TrEMBL record:
Top-level EC class: isomerase
Record's keyword terms, sorted: Isomerase
Protein name per the record: Peptidylprolyl isomerase
Pfam families named in the record: Pro_isomerase
Domain PPIase cyclophilin-type: 103-260
Function: PPIases accelerate the folding of proteins. It catalyzes the cis-trans isomerization of proline imidic peptide bonds in oligopeptides.
Coiled coil ranges: none
GO molecular function: peptidyl-prolyl cis-trans isomerase activity
Bias (Low complexity) ranges: 68-79, 254-263
Composition bias, Basic and acidic residues: 1-24
Organism (species): Streptomyces tabacisoli
């Protein structure tokens, strides 16, 4: 017999997946619209050097220009640029250090397990892509995560490219309900609900959460960072969110700087 607690977790997971699917459908509609617009504006855009058409960014130009409909992370588009050239040591450990308004968070990453993900974060951090962004989503029931990495702060932004899923079996074999446990402290990639659609958005797990093994687990928070995220979660969701348990955190988490260094 399924317990009340198990049923609540199941319902929370199902809600999470429905939201992912709705957002992907909205983004698909936006991509179709933008393809038409792009065909009309191609001459004008390319006349400026092709930066926007290529999805390039520098400094404050951080948005995924493929569309701005609600989505948990960027997905492929007609103007998508290739992911960054591999520049990390695939055998090395890396540390991502986030300085935020709610405390510092250090994330240990192993390039051997997730080379493309680590390489992307190194590339984006070096470009100061994350600096000045906010963690835009907190969930406090069924799934316990703080989601960050969107330059728009809406759930729709990204770097203009996508990366492949990695290490999906790293948390073990899925159970009968199709889920695995993402332990507290885990850092994983957000996506649109479709394979290989990770961009820049990621989530910080502050309490064991069951999810399908579809989200690249690429790092682990240090004790101080986990404690900082748990304090944010304790503050709850701000009024006006998707629900009382899913929305922007009451305690605003502004990311000051993000660095990724070897070792």
């Amino acid at each position: 017999m399924v317990s009340k607690d198990q049923r609540q977790r199941q319902l929370a997971r199902e809600k999470f997946l429905r939201q992912q699917q709705r957002r992907e459908a909205a983004r698909h509609k936006a991509r179709t619209r933008n393809t038409v617009i792009a065909s009309v504006l191609a001459v004008a855009v390319l006349g400026t050097g092709g930066a926007y058409a290529a999805g390039a960014f520098s400094g404050d130009d951080k948005k995924d220009t493929a569309g701005s409909e609600a989505s948990p992370s960027p997905s492929a588009s007609s103007t998508e640029k290739p992911e960054p050239k591999m520049a990390v040591d695939k055998k090395a450990a890396y540390t991502m250090a986030m300085k935020t308004s709610q405390g510092d968070i250090k994330i240990a990453m192993e390039a051997a397990k997730t080379p493309h993900t680590v390489n992307s974060f190194k590339y984006l951090a070096d470009k100061k892509f994350f600096d000045g962004t906010k963690c835009h989503r907190l969930t406090t029931s069924g799934i316990f995560v703080l989601q960050c990495g969107d330059p728009e702060g809406t759930g729709a932004g990204g770097p203009g490219y996508t990366i492949a899923d990695e290490n999906l079996s790293g948390l073990g074999k899925a159970g009968k309900d199709g889920s695995v446990t993402y332990p507290a402290g885990t850092v994983a990639m957000a996506n649109t609900g479709q394979p290989h659609t990770g961009g820049s958005q990621f989530f910080l797990v502050y309490k064991d959460s069951k999810l399908p093994p579809s989200y690249t687990p690429f790092g682990k928070m240090d004790a101080a960072g986990l404690k900082a995220v748990q304090a944010v979660a304790k503050g709850g969701v701000a009024a006006g969110g998707q629900s009382q348990t899913d929305g922007a955190p009451k305690k605003t988490v502004k990311v000051t700087t993000v660095t990724v260094e070897k070792g």
